[in-house]
Amino acid sequence: MSEKLMPWDRIDRSRENWEIAKDYLTMKSERKFEFVTFKDVIEKCADTSATEWWDKVIPGYGSGLWCPIYYAITIGGGVRNSVMVIHGAQSCVTAVRHFFVLYVGGGGNYYWGNPFTFVTTTDLNERDNILGAPEKLRKTLMEVDELHKPEIIFVAPTCGPGMIGEPIEEVIDDVKPELKYAEEVVYLDLPGFKAIDEGDMMRLATADYWSALMHEPKQKIKGAVNVIGDYRGTYISEREGFKPNFPTTYDEISDILKALGLKLHVIVPQSSLADIRRAPEAEFNIVNCPMLAYPICEEMEKKFGVPWSPHVYPLGREGITNYIMGFAKHFGKEKEAQKYIDERWDRDGIEPLWQEAKKLVKDKTLFMDSAISMTSVNRQLGYARMLQELGVDPDKIIFFNIGPSELIGRREGVEYFLSTSAAGKPFNPKFLWWPAPHAIKISPIEVADWLGVKDSEILHLYGDLGWYTKAPRWDVSNIAQVQSSIHFRRRRNVCQRSIFFSGTKALLRDIILAIKGAKREGKWSLYSRILGKWSVPEPAEIIESKKGISGE
Length: 552
Hints:
Layout: H1 17-29, E1 34-37, H2 38-44, H3 50-57, H4 68-76, E2 82-87, H5 90-104, E3 119-121, H6 126-131, H7 134-148, E4 152-157, H8 159-164, H9 168-175, E5 184-187, H10 198-206, H11 209-213, E6 224-228, H12 237-240, H13 249-259, E7 263-268, H14 273-277, E8 284-287, H15 290-304, H16 316-328, H17 334-347, H18 350-361, E9 365-369, H19 377-390, E10 397-400, H20 404-409, H21 411-418, E11 421-422, E12 425-426, E13 430-433, H22 444-451, E14 458-462, E15 480-483, H23 500-517, H24 526-531, H25 539-550
Parallel strand pairs: 2-3, 2-4, 4-5, 6-7, 6-8, 9-10, 9-14, 10-13, 14-15
Antiparallel strand pairs: 1-13, 11-12
């Protein structure tokens, strides 16, 4: 039997790029779509990077909405009492801050551990980018040390210095003994040309840097657990002495650990330098973001012998149980953990919501729509797995606007989800194949029409409100819609990543409200009224309408 050819294997690469692109647009207009499973992509592209995949599909096209400098600033800039030095032009930092403010909010600090993230540049000009300017880097390092008095300085180059081989490490080694305050200066080798896919950038931003800052532990702290892999919301209410309306993920993790007689030790990578150094004192590591955590966990296990659990995005009873049991088994606390899960599920009133939502999602077709890159495929896999556990038929879970490059780029997390099951069935969702760049998306209307699914049968988890949200066809009053992007799901008393018990409860409420609210056809939302096509009443019609209201 011949091996199944994937859609991207059937492309005639002898043709010009514009001809291939034209065929794709024709394919979209004629709705020549097909289904591919997540497992197919991972297995067929075992030796392919996300960047290489794009070259196979659309030669010359780069999928990168992101630049590695984004992750240098995002991750390094969140370490407490740190300063980020970008060896490059000021325009690169401006572009990053502009992106953060517009795309994810946070006023430029992106929920980081610092009240404000100090990002300075060496302000290179055209000449510097060609001939180099190591003297500017040296001067900048001396100045930021004196002005900001940081514990740690991170240095990352932009494309220019990276391409000409600027001796950045040599400058750091030379200037480090002269610094008064910075205990560490870390070179993050992340120029823009190193990667064009976000998943590849995450690996670059975590490889070796963090374990190199850690110290060999003098002793292990009994019951201590680290949380690895986050770059937002690093504050813990217990440590800071206040209870926020929007608790961090670590508040809920800390409560769970304390209930089992364990303790949250430190958060890596975004914590203080002292915390990062003592991270190996913990007995176990658990994961927040898989892409940022897995490389660090693997390094810590190899270097310091700290075991870890791969479970992520605990949503639904099965997801929560898998996550908690992942570390409870290590400490021999399975019985205590199961008792806590049962009690918490009942105490938080989740079961009645679960049963109500289960009835409502029966026979629904689940549209998992990642219309923006911020709706990570791993996060949406967590939502989809919970919906499968809730009773949605696996054959009716449809992903779209998530390209194979995103699956390959986040391979570690995707492989984890494919190793799990939900409601006794393997978890291997399918997505609607469409080889478009990020800029050209499929609307859920196209998907619904192609599948022949009735509007009343759809549950749409969307990444962002789109151009298609127009009355009368696509509106919350006739299509059940739930926001799935973490940055727009901030709810009072729900942990920051909308996971665990509080996140499960909030998602169930949203599903119930969305499905019930989709029975109000004709009561269109303001958003869809604005985008929809509505005729403007003539003056005579308005006068007659007013007469009717006044009773004249």
